[in-house]
Specification:
Main location: cytoplasm
Order of helices and strands: EEHHHHHHH
Helix content: 55-70%
Shape: flat
Strand content: under 5%
Keywords: Cell projection, Cytoplasm, Cytoskeleton
Protein name: Cilia- and flagella-associated protein 91
Organism: Pterocles gutturalis
Structural class: mainly alpha
Pfam family, one: CFAP91
Radius of gyration: 55 Å
Strand order of the largest sheet: 1-2
């Protein structure tokens, strides 16, 4: 009546295929025993390479069975020649296998070099981009400085142009106070005035708040109702009437308290 759900697939819990016990008759060598070195995950299931290995082993067993007996000199020479031919074939096969391995390693090396070159190219591109960004920032800052210097020189030239003859001009106080954009109402920091300086002069100074004597005089002027607080105790609620019976509201409060408990 109960079911369980695992966190794994059935394929992940599969063990190696079962190999039953066997008995080999005397005098026989089954071909299957020559493949005992192949196990699950290491050669099994068989691929193209394993099939080629099995075919070569069959050809070699057939070649060994076809070797002539060593009962005469001609048979011995023939046997030696066949063994030399087989040895050359095995060496040629081995050389082909080595060439295949070398080709595979060469391909892997090419891929690694290509990947390293791509990473290096990305790193170089990033460095160039950062260098270009730094140059752009420096260029923008230089342009801003040039524009600021240009504006400052233009202001100086305009001021000199107003007083072209080099004469001293008398200050017109009435004109300055009637113009709300003058230095009286909106002074500029470039002429040496900073509005945040001496800001304490705008603070209201009161005798009654900044001195002890003023506080005492202010306290003496306050009425007694401010300094001496009178608290009246609340009258208890009357739960009984003049006749001595309990009020309906009192009974209702008691019932509500019981229900709440």
């Amino acid at each position: 009546t109960l079911g369980t759900q695992t966190d794994y697939r059935d394929g992940e819990t599969q063990t190696d295929p079962y190999s039953p016990e066997y008995v080999v008759p005397s005098g026989s060598v089954p071909e299957l025993l020559t493949l005992a070195a192949l196990t699950w995950g290491r050669g099994l299931p068989a691929g193209l390479a394993e099939v080629e290995m099995i075919e070569r082993a069959r050809e070699k067993r057939a070649w060994e069975a076809a070797l002539p007996a060593m009962d005469s000199a001609s048979h011995i020479m023939k046997r030696r020649k066949m063994m030399e031919d087989m040895e050359r074939k095995e060496w040629a096969f081995r050389e082909r296998e080595i060439e295949k391995l070398q080709d595979l390693r060469l391909e892997v090396l090419k891929k690694m070099l290509q990947r390293r070159e791509e990473n290096q190219n990305e790193l170089d591109a990033k460095r160039l981009d950062d260098h270009w960004q730094n140059h752009q920032k420096a260029k923008e800052e230089k342009i801003k400085k040039i524009q600021h210097d240009c504006a400052m020189m233009l202001r100086k030239l305009i001021a000199k142009r107003k007083n072209g003859m080099g004469k001293l001009q008398r200050r017109d106080i009435i004109k300055e106070y009637t113009d709300f954009a003058s230095q009286i109402y909106a002074p500029l920091s470039r002429i040496g005035y900073f509005p945040d300086n001496h800001s304490e002069r705008y603070v209201v100074k009161n005798f009654y708040l900044n001195t002890f004597a003023g506080l005492c005089e202010l306290e003496a002027s306050l009425p007694d109702s401010v300094t001496q607080v009178k608290i009246k105790a609340p009258k208890p609620k009357c739960i009984t009437t003049k006749t001595g019976s309990i009020r309906r509201s009192a009974r209702l409060e008691v019932e509500l308290a019981q229900v709440h408990q």
